[in-house]
Amino acid sequence: MTLSKDRKPHSLCFHGERMTWLQPDSLDEFLNLKWKHPDARVVVGNTEVGVEVKFKNMVYPVILAPTFIPELSAVTHTEDGIVFGAACTLSHMAVVLRQAVESLPPHKTEVFLAVLEQLRWFAGVQIRNVAAVGGNIMTASPISDLNPVFMAAGCKLTLVDKDGSREVQMDDGFFTGYRRTALRPQQILLSIHIPYSKKTQFVSAYKQSPRREDDISIVTAAMSVTFTPGTDVVENLRLSFGGMAPTTVLAKKTANRLIGRPWGEELLEEACNSMAEEMSLDPSVPGGMVTYRRTLTLSLFYKFYLTVLQKLRLQGLKVAEVTSVCLSATEVHHPETPSSVQIYQAVAKGQNQDDVVGRPIMHLSAMKQATGEAVYCDDVPLYENELYLSLITSSKAHARILSIDTSGAERCPGVVCFLFADDIPGSNTAGSLKFDETVLADGEVTCVGHIIGAVVAKTQLQAQRAAKAVRIEYEERQPVITIQEAIATQSFYQPIRTIQKGDLELGFKHADHILEGEMHIGGQEHFYLETNVTLAVPRGEDGEMELFVSTQAPTHTQSLVAMALGVPANRVVVRVKRMGGGFGGKESRTTLLSTVVAVAANKLKRPVRCMLDRDEDMLITGGRHPFYGKYKVGFLNSGRVVALDVTYYGNAGNSMDLSQAIVERALFHMENSYRVPNIRGRGFLCRTNLPSNTAFRGFGGPQGMMVAESWMTDVAQSLGKSPEEVRRLNLYMKGDSTPFNQVLDQITLDRCWDECMSRSGYQQRRIAIDLYNRQNRWTKRGIAVVPTKFGISFTALFLNQAGALVHIYTDGSVLLTHGGTEMGQGLHTKMVQVASRVLGIPSSKIHISETSTNTVPNTSATAASASSDLNGAALKNACEILLKRLEPFKAKNPNGTWEDWVKAAYFDRVSLSANGFYKTPDIGYDFETNSGRAFSYFSYGVACSEVEIDCLTGSHKNLSTTIVMDVGNSLNPAIDIGQVEGAFMQGLGLFTLEELHYSPQGVLLTRGPGSYKIPAFGDIPTQLTVSLLRDAPNDKAIFASKAVGEPPLFLASSVFYAIKDAISAARAESGITGPFRLDSPASAERIRNACSDRFTKLCPLAEAGTFIPWSVQV
Ligand SMILES: Cc1cc2nc3c(=O)[nH]c(=O)nc-3n(C[C@H](O)[C@H](O)[C@H](O)COP(=O)(O)OP(=O)(O)OC[C@H]3O[C@@H](n4cnc5c(N)ncnc54)[C@H](O)[C@@H]3O)c2cc1C
């Protein structure tokens, strides 16, 4: 669409169901409309109002859109600054300010530079291109990034109404309360005047957020100081903070105390003491992080103090010198250009050109996915009579339902029907390995987000509005939310698992040292790009139903739908073309939605669809289990570990789901890659009132290993040795056996370790880091090398099976179907490669259309990293059967083509369709006897990471990571390296960034990308090297390959432990040495709080139990 540039804007008016949109074309008309509709909402970029409407249920009957009014978009250069119309976009403002900085003398542009610095980290380009400066001011958000700068700089605002205009100073009088300003209802903001700075004025702005890119602030600050000319005596000082009160605030008392004082150490001391008092926060304040936020105000002021000292010296004033060790505290972050190296072994010379196994061929649907042509579940075109469903969920963590009132919802337009437990024709029972759930709540809810019912309406919006209008009365019960509460109330699911080997008592007796410790590992949201979605289509006869679902588990989906509908499984077909990510989140929890949608479609005899919004998906479907680990470790002076007693508690949530197997896997990985002769691990499953937690890449393994690396680090720190030396000393060697008595015969750990040490240049890095740390007080670097060993097989024996169905058509083309689903991991690509090699035909003749329960039945979920192994072997089996059938025709016509043989077989009435089957041999473990083979084999890898932390803010930079991963003979190095990199980044999110916040009442507070941060591009290590171990064939899987989906995830813990290493260096500066507890993720808050120093001491934690925190560690 092309919009004419010459076309003059004119007033527009749109009427909708609930609102009127008015777009005036002149200021007069705008002011008249505002006079007439004082409650009308002004909208420019809609980046704030849109959020209010969508997520805060705000309804604005009249909207005024002044975007095209010239006065509101004008930029005017005045004698003492620049005036920006309130509707100027942030991108435009940045362009104008940059031009000014380039053309004006530097002393005039201190304020402009501060605004530009804030804009650098303000949202993303798309938001900045539409969001207006007036929108940011008028939202009056306490964490606005621009308002502190405008306030510190003394900007002026012009407010107008029909009767005239007035100019106001932008100070704390302007913001009258949380998201409130001094504007009268009929007034609008016309413009903002941003002044030039004075010759003796210095301005800086700071933004501290959980993630650097595209994130909202925790604390944001701007500081402006003006000196009496020719001196270092403060004439004027404005310290403005966001995130410290319901409005942007000025630290006036502190500033007043410092006026007239010289800029030196005494002023700093006074400023910190005063600000610690003035910028206090209630311990229950929304947003939490109380100590961190308070410390930040001091730390940021200290940065400003040093920056100004430097500038004063540059002006020739005799102020204290900023010593070189402190210089890095004044550096402004600029992202570096990242680089990456990928190393793999080429296929052997002489391998047939058509044989694509081992070659780095592109994911078969990569192009379609990149261009948007790939078809996902919700892309299935609308059926003519299709309806939309929205879920009604509990707002209480634990309660009895007293009444459900749908009367308000019934009046909503478009509503077709409601669905509650009584509407289920078959069984209301649901679950995974244990059937301990309901499809729809039956009188009781056990978590916030528990599905109580559903509304079906004509459109998505209508269904969602009606669902919100349903009123439910509850009788609340005491919920159990956290692991600690579960321990206190002994709220556990059974069984409690133990793995034990050796003699623990003897082990501790022989130990030179015994150490105890603990660690909490937070959960993780799957954050697949495509949220849960189901389209259910009744077939109109015999109870048949067809479902299009984004699920890793078509068979499980089929079983639960059949149960709920009260029909045999043979009436239900589940089809999966591809998923936009799964990561374990679509292994079992997809059935929560698909079953309800199927019940609705069955009731109405019409197709019904539902795709959850991100906030609903995050609320309802659970995630990775938070874990708490407690350990006691015995070790020798050399660092060799001789005894370990470890207990794990996993927060399972309100149902068992897959939690038992997850805690078991944590136990199977409790020693990570280390030989521990005397060991006991116990695993408790906490029953809590959180949405049931579920499978997530690694399946409990990462949590198990994370605790292992904690005690390993403690051992090294308490002995004063390097953790790498102690890790290497304890590393498993060939012939060792695990705590569950599995002998490690084909182990490549030591090879991975040695290669990683040399490729990463560990020794040189360590020396350089020690030097850097001696030279820098406020930034520290750290390094860690961490190994991983990951067991491959489902721990539930029966799941280790797979089927395949291969058709050859008479034109020679081949259609593969197997039990696995494609979720972006490249399974279908690898399966085509396998079939191509076995059949001896080019991969271009082979196609996979989808996964479906009517082609390959009784499949295991695509999970446990084992899908290439299992389905690859089943496909090989089917292809070999077909090859055998074709043999006589090849023999008869040896010079013929594939097509000739296929045709000949067909005319000879030979079946060109075959089933294949595979089950993993020689596995099966028994907890009772601690015997039997738990895993078919292990995948190994080692990573070395280097980081830099900012001790004052807690931010960190991922400088470099080197990974060496054993994937056997890679089926496809391009896909395998993609899996290694992807798993690493997801682990990096888990261990350093992603935080789910729950209120003490069990309400999830982080329900979208605005508050829950997954890694961004800037979090990728600046240097990332992935090397696939050479010459490491694996005789236990298809074509000597190895599983790769989950094993590399844990390698991201090397970043966590590198951070811990850097924190140790910071603590040493304050005279603190030895082991310390650092919970995961190593967020900016945790890093800052752990870097104990003069500033943290001024902001002590409130005593636990004396207040109700905003969020709790679950
Ligand atoms: C993904 C995302 C990221 C974001 N990141 C950041 C960030 O990093 N930092 C930050 O500070 N904010 C951030 N925001 C918040 C928001 O983008 C900014 O506040 C933005 O400047 C709002 O501008 P807008 O034009 O979109 O406002 P709108 O949504 O159009 O309006 C916002 C408010 O301002 C009022 N208003 C607008 N113009 C006038 C006027 N002339 N007179 C009177 N009232 C007026 C409106 O009535 C409304 O109440 C983010 C938002 C999103 C969605």
How would you characterize the overall build of this protein?
The chain has 1114 residues and is an alpha+beta fold. Helices cover 30% and strands 24% of the residues. The strands form eleven sheets. An eight-stranded mixed β-sheet has the order 19-23-17-30-27-28-29-38, with helices on both faces. A five-stranded antiparallel β-sheet has the order 5-6-11-7-8. The longest helix has 26 residues, at 867-892. The relative contact order is 0.09. The protein binds flavin-adenine dinucleotide. Flavin-adenine dinucleotide binds at residues 41-49, 51, 86, 122-123, 127, 131-132, 134-136, 138-139, 144-145, 188-189, 216.
Key words describing this protein structure:
alpha+beta, 30% helix, 24% strand, globular, 1114 residues, binds flavin-adenine dinucleotide
Chart the SSEs and their pairings.
Elements: E1 12-15, E2 20-23, H1 27-36, E3 41-42, H2 49-55, E4 62-64, H3 70-73, E5 75-78, E6 81-85, H4 90-103, H5 110-120, H6 125-130, H7 133-139, H8 147-153, E7 156-161, E8 164-169, E9 175-177, E10 180-181, E11 188-195, E12 201-208, E13 219-227, E14 234-242, E15 249-250, H9 252-258, H10 265-278, H11 290-314, E16 339-343, H12 366-371, E17 387-393, E18 399-405, H13 407-410, E19 415-419, E20 429-430, E21 437-438, E22 444-445, E23 451-457, H14 460-469, E24 471-476, H15 483-488, E25 492-501, H16 504-510, E26 513-521, E27 533-538, E28 545-549, H17 554-565, E29 572-576, H18 591-604, E30 608-611, H19 614-620, E31 627-635, E32 641-653, H20 659-668, E33 678-687, H21 701-719, H22 723-730, H23 749-760, H24 762-775, E34 779-792, E35 801-808, E36 814-818, H25 827-839, E37 846-848, E38 851-852, H26 867-892, H27 898-907, E39 913-919, E40 924-926, E41 931-933, E42 937-950, E43 956-966, H28 973-992, E44 1023-1028, H29 1053-1069, H30 1084-1090, H31 1094-1097
Parallel strand pairs: 2-4, 3-4, 16-44, 17-30, 28-29, 32-33, 36-37, 43-44
Antiparallel strand pairs: 1-2, 5-6, 6-11, 7-8, 7-11, 9-10, 12-13, 13-14, 14-15, 17-23, 18-22, 18-24, 19-23, 20-21, 25-33, 26-31, 27-28, 27-30, 29-38, 31-32, 34-42, 35-36, 35-39, 40-41, 42-43
